[in-house]
Design goal:
The protein has 709 residues and is an alpha+beta fold. The protein is built from 26 helices and 20 strands. Strand 4 and strand 5 form a beta hairpin.
């Protein structure tokens, strides 16, 4: 982008990367000709490209360079250099990452349509539709004014135009990297503005595309501009270790010996951390050792070799088990694969080790750029509406495109995008059917529901995490197993509380859209439904003592038949419950279930329990029994009516019912019921549990298996 170009400065040289000889490029660009031989200016680009793609057609690069050079002739950058040096530098960056020929061709031409008289039709005639598509996408990106008030809508339009082809974003990132390298002649305030946009938008995009080589250099360049003092301190820290012996070199030699003896062909390298990474280590540990300045990289041929290396390292060295991560079995959201571990070095310091195949390493460095042209094969026949089928497109990018389609308000979309880009870590959750869901760290069951089911998640009523019932607000951790519980009621939907638990834009947008079309009415408690006419319930039991109780109270083995007996209301015992009794005023005896919490409190206070037993433990229908049941369920419409209907269907009468206010989409119901036969109780509980949305029914006085409300 010509507005962001400047001289090569000290920032561009701080990483010691190979740079283009700008003076040689200037001479070659100004003297370019139409000969069939490859111009000197792109000779280095061609050699790098051929190293990755030996059979590449270089003629199209020659023609693209000649068109770009002739179109930009007479234009200069703010540094005074010929403008052609910029597209050449951008193309070299992409060539070093292993980009395929079509991407490099579009890179050479990426500023021609914006800054010269070259048209998209001309690009299509000369280089084909794919190159035209890429140049058009980058041209739209060039028009984004990140500091303007219209930024959300502009950025949204850009994603619509370019989101179907990750190569457009790759060219944009390389373009920004070269501009950041040459930012030195800009005014300080403009440097800061560009650096902040790079930090907030483009670095997270590089992370999500997996282009670590670009991301790390951009981070260092931004670090130097926005935090010059911290950058200088980190630079001095790294330089202070330059003259010392490197413990990682010693550990690398030992690793090579171990793998050689094991017969594992591997390349062991010491990779220096970039400045931002060293700065993060210092903030985390409070100090930096020689081992913290880099990591060991072990490259092997096959996936199985990675695990063989891991086994040898953990056998021959002291491993730090807490540092082990397997991103081969579960790749990161940006296609990254590697084994991470740490072993004790010669001085006991932890040496970080990355183990991967050569192909994994190419993808780790270059991300989607290393995967070639996603459209080399014919598009699948089910592609619709011109949607390009991109096997390399990460899942987050597909989600992002869905957000922009679902969110009419550009400001809402922009806020959602910024929130998502701010997440620098993702967790992987295993579904009950064996699939996986990738989510930003901090996501909840609500987010997982919408990631898996889209708008179908509106009917989610709960979840099991690692086999245990959990609320929808439960935050998921890496490796959790998740089973979502869905309602069969098509009318069910999310409550406003779900917005408090949603962390991902996809979930928030879907919930807000549903709530906007389903306004919440003032809650009205539904009346209890009448008992079915063909299953009349027994009449309510009188509060007066019954003529004969099914309980016999004994003292020293002697039945006390005349004793007045009361069944405790706190636990409502029924046969065949194990029971105990306590004498109360007036000579009466109150009977409790043995496991009732009140029993423990009374015994602890010094009260003496009496032996009690049921006179007819099998139950002969001669008595009416009261029992209190607690039902826990997920909130949904008509739940109370369905529960009371199930109760009445089992021949039980509802003496009283209470429903607590919903909390995190869960509701607790308390029913006092009258049974004609105690033997009804197990089947009654089973019938209540079969009601959709009900996940537990227990007698009063027992604890639920799930978490308390």
């Amino acid at each position: 982008m010509s507005a962001e170009t400047a001289n090569e400065g000290a920032l561009g040289r701080m990483r010691g990367r190979a740079r283009i000889d700008l003076r040689r490029l200037r001479r070659a660009a100004l003297g370019g000709s139409g000969a069939r031989r490859l111009p000197d200016a792109i000779d280095h680009v061609a050699k790098v490209h051929r190293a990755h793609h030996p059979g590449a057609d270089l003629d199209i690069l020659r023609r693209a360079y000649l068109l770009a050079e002739s179109s930009h002739r007479g234009q200069t950058r703010k540094s005074g250099e010929p403008y052609i040096t910029h597209p050449l530098a951008v193309t070299l960056i992409l060539a070093e990452l292993g980009a395929e020929t079509t991407t490099l061709t579009a890179s050479l031409l990426h500023d021609t349509v914006e800054d010269t008289e070259v048209t998209l039709d001309q690009v299509r005639r000369e280089f084909g539709e794919e190159v035209r598509f890429l140049v058009d996408g980058v041209t739209k990106l060039e028009k984004v004014d990140y500091g303007a008030a219209a930024e959300p809508e502009t950025f949204r339009k850009m994603l619509v135009a370019t989101g179907n082809d990750v190569r457009v974003m790759s060219i944009k990132l390389a373009d920004r990297l070269h501009n950041m390298r040459t930012l030195g002649v800009m005014r300080p305030e403009k440097q800061v503005r560009i650096a902040k946009v790079t930090r907030d938008v483009l670095i997270p995009l590089a992370e999500r595309l997996g282009v670590q080589a670009l991301k790390t250099e951009l981070e260092d360049l931004v670090f130097a501009i926005l935090h010059p003092e911290e950058y200088a301190r980190t630079r001095d820290l790294v330089l202070s270790h330059a003259g010392r012996s490197d413990p990682l070199v010693v550990t690398a030699d030992r690793v090579r010996g171990v793998l050689r003896e094991a017969g594992i062909a591997a390349e062991v390298l010491v990779r220096a951390r970039h400045f931002v990474s060293v700065h993060r280590v210092r903030l985390q540990h409070g100090r930096v050792t020689g081992s913290d300045l880099g990591r060991l990289l072990v490259l092997v041929g096959e996936d199985a070799d990675c695990y063989a290396v891991l086994g040898e390292l953990h056998t021959c060295f002291t491993p730090y088990v807490s540092e082990f991560k397997d991103f081969i079995a579960v790749p990161k959201f940006n296609l990254y694969q590697s084994l991470h571990t740490a072993v004790a070095g010669p001085g006991g310091e932890a040496a970080q080790v990355l183990i991967r195949t050569h192909q994994m390493h190419r993808v780790a460095e270059a991300g989607v750029v290393a995967l070639g042209n996603p459209y080399a094969a014919p598009e699948t026949p089910d592609a619709t509406d011109g949607e390009r089928v991109d096997p390399t497109r990460p899942g987050w990018l597909s989600r992002l495109l869905e957000w922009q389609r679902a969110t009419p308000d550009p400001d809402t979309f922009w806020t959602s995008l910024r929130d998502d880009l701010a997440q620098d870590r993702e967790v992987t959750v295993f579904r009950a059917d064996g699939g996986t869901i990738g989510l930003p760290a901090g996501s909840t069951c609500v987010d997982a529901a919408y990631a898996q089911h889209g708008d179908g998640a509106h009917s989610c009523i709960g979840a099991r995490v690692n086999g245990r019932l959990a609320t929808l607000s439960t935050v998921l951790s890496d490796g959790d197993t998740l089973q979502l519980l869905m309602s069969r009621d098509s009318a069910s939907g999310p409550s406003p509380d779900w917005l408090e638990h949603a962390r991902t834009p996809a979930a928030r947008i879907a919930i807000e859209r549903w709530l906007a079309t389903h306004p919440v009415a003032d809650p009205v408690a539904p009346p209890l439904p009448p008992s079915p006419p063909d299953r009349p319930c027994p009449p309510p039991r009188s509060t007066a003592p019954a003529a004969r109780w099914p309980v016999v109270v004994t003292a020293d083995g002697t039945d006390l038949a005349a004793t007045s007996v009361r069944l405790a209301g706190c636990c409502t015992p029924v046969p065949p419950d194990e029971v105990t009794g306590f004498a109360v005023r007036g000579g009466a005896v109150t009977v409790h279930r043995a496991q009732c919490p009140a029993v423990g409190r009374m015994v602890a206070s010094g009260r003496t329990a009496m032996d009690v037993r049921w006179s007819n433990p099998e139950g002969d229908g001669s008595f009416d029994y009261r029992v209190t049941l607690l039902a826990e369920s997920f909130s949904r419409p008509h739940l109370l009516a369905d529960l009371t209907e199930a109760i009445a269907g089992e021949g039980a009468a509802v003496i009283s019912a209470a429903v607590e206010p919903p909390h995190e989409q869960r509701v607790r119901h308390t029913y006092t019921l009258q049974l004609a036969d105690a033997a009804q109780l197990p089947e009654l509980i089973r019938a209540m549990r079969r009601v959709p949305g009900v996940y537990d029914v227990e007698r009063a006085g027992r604890s639920f298996a799930g978490a308390p409300l």
